[in-house]
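Researcher: Checking consistency across runs. Here is Glutaminyl-peptide cyclotransferase again:
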Amino acid sequence: MISRLLFALAGLAVLAAPAAGQAPVSRATAEIVATYPHDTGAFTQGLFIEDGVLFESTGQVGASGLRQVTLETGHVERQTALEPPYFGEGSVQLGSSIYMLTWQSETGFIFDAGTFERIGTFDYEGQGWGLTHDGTHLILSDGTAELRVIDPADFSTMRTIEVTLAGRPVRRLNELEWVDGEIWANVWQSPLIVRIDPESGAVTGLIDLTDLVPPALAGSHDAVANGIAWNRETGQIYVTGKLWPSLYEIRISE
C-alpha cells in the first residue's frame, strides 16, 4: 500500500521522512460501513451534508448543476442547472447560502439553500476546483498546492495556505471538506485523500481509497475519487467519485 500512496501523490515521487519538529504522517485505508446508489451520470465536483441532507454539485459543460439527493436511494429531490459555458465545480453551504465554483470562468454562483434560487455571483482569479468552509470563511482550491481562505462578505482572499508533505508542495488539491478541525482534500488523478492542518498547511495523514474505486472505472482519467462529505452532527464520513455507481459511508482504518 505504501508504494501506491507514494507514487499516486501528485508531484511527489518519494515520501520523505518528516522534517525536524514535524509529526509523522499517518497512513490509512477506508473501510466500507455502508453502500448507497450514486448517479453514474454525475460528474461529481462537490459533496456536502447540511442538517442531515446530502448535496452535490456536478461538472461538464451542459451537465453542470447543484442537486439535493436522498442518501439512501440516490434519488435527486431537486436540482438547478448551470447553463453553458459554465463548468461546475466545488460547492458548500455557509449560513443560508450555497456557494458553487466554476472551473475556468472565474465566476462563482450563490444559491438560496432553501429554494435553490440563484441570488448572486462572485469573482475570483484563476481556476475554481474545490470549496469548503471553517464555519466562518470559505476555503477554495484551484488545482495548485495553495488553498485560499476567502471572506464571504466581499470574497477577498484573507490568507493562503501552502499545503506540503514533508516540506514539499502537494499539488492538484481538488474537492475539499472540513472534517472536525482539519481540511480533507482529494488529490486529482489519484485515489488519495490528504488530511491538512489548516494553520500550517502540513499534511498530517493520507487516506487510500483504492479499494473503493469501481473495477470498471479503474485507470480512468475522468472517473476519479472526488467527493467527501462529513456529517458534523453524527461524525459520519461519506465518499464517492466522478461517474461512480456508489457512494460509501466509510470508517478510517489506520
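Researcher: Does this match what you'd expect to see?
Model: One thing to look at in this run: The chain has one domain: 2-12+23-253.
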